[in-house]
Automatic annotation (TrEMBL):
The lineage of its organism: Bacteria, Pseudomonadati, Myxococcota, Myxococcia, Myxococcales. Its EC number is 2.7.13.3. PROSITE patterns: HIS_KIN. It is a multi-pass membrane protein. The chain crosses the membrane at residues 14-36, 85-111, 123-148, 160-183, 195-213, 225-243, 250-268, 280-301. It comes from Myxococcus landrumensis. This is histidine kinase. Pfam families: HATPase_c, HisKA, MASE1.
Length: 566
């Protein structure tokens, strides 16, 4: 039934009952209009579809009220077209509701019916148990009651029974799909262009159907049918291909309404004489075939679309799983390599540092025992030995830092003091001709960081910038807020005016043991990447132009909407 979420919960069952009874009464009025001699039985009984829709879209505990309301309203809604209200009128109404109850139970329990009718089994369930099966109950019960009440002659029983049965079946096939599909989904998922296309489709279908059924009969009985009769089928195919069940049911309703109206007035290819028995049979067969063809095609297309969407979703999940697997495997290989390198580094550090310590102690002893060696050529050699010992010790320390697992202790704190400390430490050994410029983009939220590890990473970046300007230059640092991958980040840029980095070198600059310096280890920027990316879940990038300078950019995720510390 229509969405009543805006109403108080306790009033919703009552409002659904009022809407159902009103729709059932309106359908009864329409069905009574479509009842013509000699059978005085409706060629299409819309209340059958209304009743089935109401029972399928409501809970079981609301069914008794719906059934009683429909039984009470049907005789009064149809009394203008039939005989006076008697007990037989209520029995006929009860038979129509028993039909709907049986169909609803079978569809719910056995078919597991979807009101959107986006499966072939839903259409089969509606056609078999509902339209063809349950309508036998109401047709038999109602016609027997009319026969016993002498409203129907014995010779007219079977012809009237056939029209009654097919009329109720047509009500289920034409009205129930329209109400079910549109009440369950409405216009959801359709763009404005799609809605305009549906409007154009319905207008064209209406014009074509009106033209076909407004023509006088082509011949006296038995009629000969012209191929133009089936002009509406391309529009039904259009509706099924583009709009699936919702568009198909709406197009079928437009076509059926026009066909019934023109045939009732003796026009169209099926009009032998106004509402002659043959006319009703031909028209009902035509509408049934058209409706079923459209519904089966639409449901098959819906199943195909869902299957394609499911395959696409599974492919996407598979790609994500493969990507995750590849990332995990790469991380595992990297850890294994780092573990092997760590063992090797520990061994090398132990074996190298012992001789280095002995050499350093020997140099100190030489200076103490022979002070005269502090000057002259011997002193220069001692200085060279000291520098090489320090260089070897630095290499060992870098190797140990790179192979040591990064286990940061992240705390929410300001980024500015860490940057300031790393910059100060780097400038102590730099050129005196460097001009430093710092910029802070207003108050910034705190960042989750390990101050010690981040100090090591930023010191390496600042040291590289200072070493790129041996004759002096400009060093610019800037901290600002930025959005990266939809999340707030703090962005730190470090720019120098040094010699720059070639493009081919930039592609390998973060690789371990890659360096363009004669005395470098090639581990500084690799350590920076490990600390920033692995330790702080951030990102680091480089942009450089040869002869103009280099800019390193570091993104660090903010700690959230906390109070600003900068």
């Amino acid at each position: 039934m229509p969405s009543l979420e805006s109403c108080p919960r306790r009033w919703q069952p009552l409002l659904r009952l009022v809407l159902f009874v009103s729709a059932y009464a309106l359908g009864t009025k329409l069905g009574a209009v479509l009842a013509f001699p000699p059978e005085l039985v409706s060629a299409m009984w819309p209340p059958s579809g209304v009743a089935l829709t109401g029972l399928l879209l409501t809970r079981h505990r609301e069914w008794p009220a719906l059934v009683i309301g429909a039984i009470l309203v049907e005789p009064f809604a149809s009394r203008d077209a039939h005989w006076p209200i008697t007990l037989a009128s209520f029995v006929v109404a009860a038979g129509n509701l028993v039909e709907a109850l049986v169909a609803a139970l079978v569809l719910r329990r056995l078919v597991r019916f979807h009101p959107s009718m986006d499966r072939v089994r839903d259409v089969l369930g509606l056609v078999g148990p509902a339209a063809l099966g349950s309508t036998l109950i109401s047709a038999t019960l109602s016609l027997c009651m009319l026969l016993s009440d002498q409203r129907l002659g014995a010779g007219e029983f079977w012809s009237a029974w056939r029209v009654f049965w097919v009329g109720n079946a047509m009500g289920v096939l034409l009205v129930a799909p329209l109400l079910l599909t549109w009440l369950s989904r409405g216009l959801a998922g359709w763009t404005r262009q799609r809605r305009l296309e549906l409007t154009a489709l319905l207008l064209l279908l209406g014009v074509a159907t009106h033209w076909v059924f407004s023509m006088p009969p082509t011949a006296a009985p038995p009629a000969t049918f012209h191929p133009v009769t089936y002009l509406a089928f391309p529009f039904l195919l259009w509706a099924a291909l583009r709009f699936e069940a919702r568009g198909t049911t709406l197009a079928t309703t437009v076509m059926s309404a026009l066909a019934l109206w023109h045939t009732a007035h003796g026009h169209g290819p099926f009009a032998q004489s106004a509402w002659h028995n043959d006319s009703v049979i031909f028209l009902q067969s035509f509408l049934a075939v058209a409706s079923l063809s459209g519904l089966f095609l639409a449901s098959a297309l819906s199943e195909r679309r869902r299957a394609q969407e499911e395959v696409s979703h599974l492919n996407q999940e598979l790609r994500q799983s493969l990507q995750t697997l590849a990332t995990t495997q790469a991380a595992l290989v990297r850890r294994e390599r780092l573990a092997a390198l760590g063992e090797l580094s520990a061994t090398v550090a132990h074996e190298v540092r012992n001789p280095l310590g002995a050499i350093s102690n020997a140099l100190a002893a030489i200076r103490r025992l022979a002070p005269q060696t502090a000057s002259g050529p011997a002193g220069q050699l001692l200085v060279i030995m000291d520098e090489e010992v320090q260089r070897l010790d630095l290499i060992v320390n870098d190797l140990l830092d790179y192979t040591r697992p990064v286990e940061p202790r992240l705390q929410h704190q300001a980024l500015g003091p860490v940057v300031e400390g790393a910059l100060t430490a780097s400038l102590r050994a730099g050129s005196s001709g460097i001009t430093v410029s710092q910029s802070l983009d207003g108050p910034l939220p705190p960042v989750a960081l390990d101050a010690h590890l981040l100090h090591v990473a930023l010191t390496n970046l600042f040291t590289n910038a200072v070493q790129a300007m041996p004759s002096g230059g400009n060093l610019v640092t800037r901290i600002e807020t930025a959005t990266r991958e939809g999340a707030p980040h703090a962005r730190l840029t470090i720019s120098d005016t040094g010699h720059g980095i070639p493009v081919d070198v930039q592609q390998r600059i973060f690789e371990p043991f890659f360096t363009t310096r004669a005395t470098g280890t090639g581990l500084g920027l690799a350590i920076v990447r490990r600390i920033v990316v692995d330790g702080h879940h951030g990102e680091v990038a480089v942009h450089s132009t040869v002869g103009q300078g280099t800019t390193f950019t570091v993104w660090l995720p903010c700690a959230g909407e906390a109070r600003t510390l900068l």
